[in-house]
């Protein structure tokens, strides 16, 4: 893990591998951002001019490296783009700082220590820079650097150090003795470590991450962080009548699991239930996915990873709210035992579902978990899932959809997501689409109209939410797994999408801001 230090050291005296400064896009050229005054002085006040000569403009996502002058104790200065200079009296927004710090964190892989001299006028600014740097520094190296059998005897085993994450982030101007700054730093460390753990889970190959092993990870984390963990295996699921989970998982040699994580606070007045889709590998089942659609299906448990990370974060932060996480874990595989199109499953709720497409499996495992979560009468339920390709078609790869049975709750989730820097968009649940899931054989079918498929999936899930409980559904199919080039603090592969939204929701609930 990358370490975080708040430092009162000056930029000119810090000894590190590199120093990060901000560069904004001004009307007449790049402008050095606050926090870099000492660095600019070391360049005789011409840092912006030098950077402009090298092609830098201050645009967001821009990274420019240059050798440091003799007045600094570091060998390299890295300028990161912050975007347009804020209007007079305005500060740089948190997401711009987060992304700039993330770009620097990525650029510093392989380094041991780097100072960040970005604008940190407030504790919120410091928290954003810390979050961005720690998320940007992430690297998944668990399967790299194996011993080379042809290497000379005694040669060092291990991976390429250049791929390892930055060792330490030193936040200059961080005010380590200020309670607000210290709290912001501690929060950033706790949340980003859990986001990065979620990323690790998403990136882990499905031959190593399957329902039983995922449940074991959750159990170990529960012991470490004082979270009660209950794991229902196949026998318990059969006894309980969890037909959705069993139906999806019965085609695999790795049996399904339902994991309940419970964080409680003695003074909590509200309870949140978080439900995550945990398909550790999705082949589509008998309705097999076409070629080219299987390679990234290890990411179909991203919702469960997000829920897991959010519950652990709530515990680490000691939030005054009860948070229960439900991980609906199964592997969707084709075999002689697999559920067939046309089969009817009896769900935990007692409703029967005609399975028209075995690749619409996420809603089946979520339905069982939603019913079970509803039995405990929480104040609100939020489920998170890489549920439909239709949502990606609607909103693209960087934005998740938000549906809910309560307009005010949906608006709150959307606002929270935007506040923490996660792109989202409120989506409707049109009642007329429900008719498309009518079945002549069962109470409901798991498929409806093709157009508006993401909304149809939301309507299906709504059928399994308890009466009178506020519920929201986050379809993170687009942003959960990034296949393109890294940007900002977003890596290639698992992103940890929705964790920050869930944590901020828990914080707001603890503060009584959601009613």
UniProtKB/TrEMBL annotation:
Organism: Streptomyces atroolivaceus
GO molecular function: aminopeptidase activity
Role played: Presumably involved in the processing and regular turnover of intracellular proteins. Catalyzes the removal of unsubstituted N-terminal amino acids from various peptides.
Residues in Cytosol aminopeptidase domain copies: 357-364
Subcellular location: Cytoplasm
Entry note: cofactor: Binds 2 manganese ions per subunit.
Broadest EC class assigned to this enzyme: hydrolase
Encoding gene, per UniProt annotation: pepA
UniProt protein name: Probable cytosol aminopeptidase
PROSITE patterns on file: CYTOSOL_AP (PS00631)
Binding residue positions for Mn(2+) 2: 277, 282, 300, 361
Cofactor(s) this protein cannot do without: Mn(2+)
Catalysis performed (reactions): Release of an N-terminal amino acid, preferentially leucine, but not glutamic or aspartic acids; Release of an N-terminal amino acid, Xaa-|-Yaa-, in which Xaa is preferably Leu, but may be other amino acids including Pro although not Arg or Lys, and Yaa may be Pro. Amino acid amides and methyl esters are also readily hydrolyzed, but rates on arylamides are exceedingly low
Lineage: Bacteria, Bacillati, Actinomycetota, Actinomycetes, Kitasatosporales
Binding-site residues, Mn(2+) 1: 282, 359, 361
InterPro entries linked: Leucine_aapep/pepB, Macro_dom-like, Peptidase_M17_C, Peptidase_M17_leu_NH2_pept, Peptidase_M17_N
Active site: 289, 363
Record keywords, A-Z: Aminopeptidase, Cytoplasm, Hydrolase, Manganese, Metal-binding, Protease
Family membership noted in the UniProt record: Belongs to the peptidase M17 family.
EC nos: 3.4.11.1, 3.4.11.10
């Amino acid at each position: 893990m990358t370490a975080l230090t708040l430092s009162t050291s000056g930029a000119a005296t810090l000894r590190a591998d590199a120093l990060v400064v901000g560069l904004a896009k001004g009307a007449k050229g790049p402008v050095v951002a606050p926090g870099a005054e000492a660095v600019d002085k070391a360049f005789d006040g011409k840092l912006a001019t030098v950077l402009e000569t090298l092609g830098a403009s201050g645009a967001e996502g821009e990274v420019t490296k240059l050798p440091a002058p003799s007045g600094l104790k570091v060998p390299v200065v890295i300028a990161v783009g912050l975007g347009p200079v804020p209007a007079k009296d305005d500060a740089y927004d948190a997401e711009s700082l987060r992304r700039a710090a993330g770009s620097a964190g990525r650029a510093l892989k392989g380094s041991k220590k780097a100072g960040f001299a970005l604008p940190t006028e407030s504790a919120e600014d410091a928290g954003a820079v810390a979050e961005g740097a720690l998320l940007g520094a992430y690297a998944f190296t668990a399967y790299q650097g194996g011993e080379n059998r042809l290497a000379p005897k005694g040669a060092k085993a291990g991976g390429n150090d250049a791929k390892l994450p930055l060792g330490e982030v030193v936040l200059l101007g961080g005010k380590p003795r200020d309670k607000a700054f210290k709290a912001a730093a501690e929060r950033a460390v706790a949340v980003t470590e859990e986001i990065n753990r979620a990323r690790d889970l998403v990136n882990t190959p499905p031959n190593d991450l399957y329902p039983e092993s995922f449940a074991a990870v959750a159990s170990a984390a529960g012991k470490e962080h004082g979270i009660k963990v209950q794991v229902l295996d196949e026998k318990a699921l059969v006894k309980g009548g969890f037909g959705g989970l069993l139906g999806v998982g019965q085609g695999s040699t790795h049996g399904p699991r339902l994991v309940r994580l419970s964080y409680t606070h003695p003074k909590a007045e509200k309870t949140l239930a978080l439900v995550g889709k945990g398909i550790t590998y999705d082949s589509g089942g008998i309705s097999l996915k076409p070629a080219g659609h299987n390679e990234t299906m290890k990411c179909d448990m991203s919702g469960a990873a997000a829920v897991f990370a959010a519950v652990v974060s709530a515990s680490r932060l000691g939030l005054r709210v009860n948070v229960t996480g439900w991980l609906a874990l199964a592997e969707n595989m084709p075999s002689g035992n697999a559920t067939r199109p046309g089969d009817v499953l009896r769900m935990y709720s007692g409703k029967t579902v005609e399975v028209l497409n075995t690749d619409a499996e996420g809603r089946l495992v979520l339905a069982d978990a939603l019913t079970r979560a509803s039995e405990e009468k929480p104040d609100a339920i939020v489920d998170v899932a890489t549920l439909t390709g239709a949502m990606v078609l609607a909103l693209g790869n960087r934005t998740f959809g938000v549906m809910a049975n309560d307009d005010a709750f949906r608006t709150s989730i959307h606002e929270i997501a935007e506040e923490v820097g996660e792109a989202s968009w409120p989506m409707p649940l049109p009642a007329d689409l429900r008719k498309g899931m009518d079945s002549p054989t069962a109470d409901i079918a798991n498929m409806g109209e093709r157009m508006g498929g993401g909304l149809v999936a939301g309507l299906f899930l709504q059928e399994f939410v308890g009466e009178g409980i506020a519920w929201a559904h986050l379809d993170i199919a687009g942003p959960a797994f990034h296949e393109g080039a890294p940007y900002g603090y977003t890596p290639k592969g698992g992103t940890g999408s929705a964790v920050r939204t869930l944590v901020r929701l828990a914080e707001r609930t603890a503060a009584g801001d959601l009613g």
